[in-house]
Automatic annotation (TrEMBL):
GO terms for molecular function: metal ion binding. Keywords: Heme, Iron, Membrane, Metal-binding, Signal, Transmembrane, Transmembrane helix. Belongs to the CcmH/CycL/Ccl2/NrfF family. The keyword Disulfide bond does not apply. Residues 15-107 form the CcmH/CycL/Ccl2/NrfF N-terminal domain. Pfam families: CcmH. It comes from Leptospira perolatii. This is Cytochrome c-type biogenesis protein. The chain crosses the membrane at residues 137-157. Possible subunit of a heme lyase. InterPro entries: CcmH/CycL/Ccl2/NrfF_N, CcmH/CycL/NrfF/Ccl2_sf. The keyword Transmembrane applies.
């Protein structure tokens, strides 16, 4: 029974770690056509997040980075116009030109005074917009999570297998205490 509990704990920990990486790879799109969704996923996997440059924009959360969320809407608009993934990525690097100012997302950026993003879309972000994840931090995070998990499992097992006084030893201790009290009274 003990081995089952340990296996269950380890399996649960592994599932928890893996589920985090599966969730990190998901993104939302308003596109419904399968080919358009496929193009969207390809583009958002190749372009980096504006707020967290070490991850693709596909993995960027709306709550954490509204700029990247709006750029995803811009990418959707370009896909609806029939642009391919390679074209969109190339234009993100080299610029979409002045016609990008007609897009409602970019027009809203300009209206709100976010000139850096507007200039990047119109004239290009350069090669820096490409997603090049730095696996050092990812690997370090996974190693720390794994180490913490092992420490927790070790402490759990140590606590469960630590010496617990048996009923017999506690009776012996009580008897010894009783004898020492008698000796004290005799003196």
């Amino acid at each position: 029974m003990k081995a089952f509990g340990i296996r269950f704990l380890i399996l649960s920990f592994c599932i928890w770690i893996l589920s985090g990486s599966l969730v990190a790879e998901s993104t939302f799109t308003n596109l419904t056509d399968h080919e358009q969704v496929k193009t969207f996923l390809e583009v958002t996997n190749r372009i980096r997040c504006i707020c967290l440059p070490s991850i693709p924009i596909k993995s960027c959360s709306f709550n954490n980075c509204t700029v990247s969320a709006k750029l995803k809407l811009f990418i959707e608009n370009r896909i609806r116009k029939g642009e391919s993934a390679d074209t969109i990525v190339n234009k993100m690097i080299n610029g979409f030109g002045e016609e990008a100012l007609q897009d409602p997302v970019i027009a809203k950026f300009a209206e709100n005074g976010n000139d850096g993003i507007v200039q990047g879309v119109v004239y290009g972000f350069g090669q820096d917009i490409l997603a090049k994840p730095d696996s050092t931090w990812i690997n370090l995070s996974l190693a720390l999570a794994g180490g913490l998990g092992l420490i927790i499992i070790f402490l759990y097992l140590k606590r469960r297998t630590s010496f617990k006084p048996t009923e017999k030893s506690s009776k012996t201790d009580s008897f010894q205490k009783y004898l020492s009290e008698i000796e004290e009274k005799q003196k």
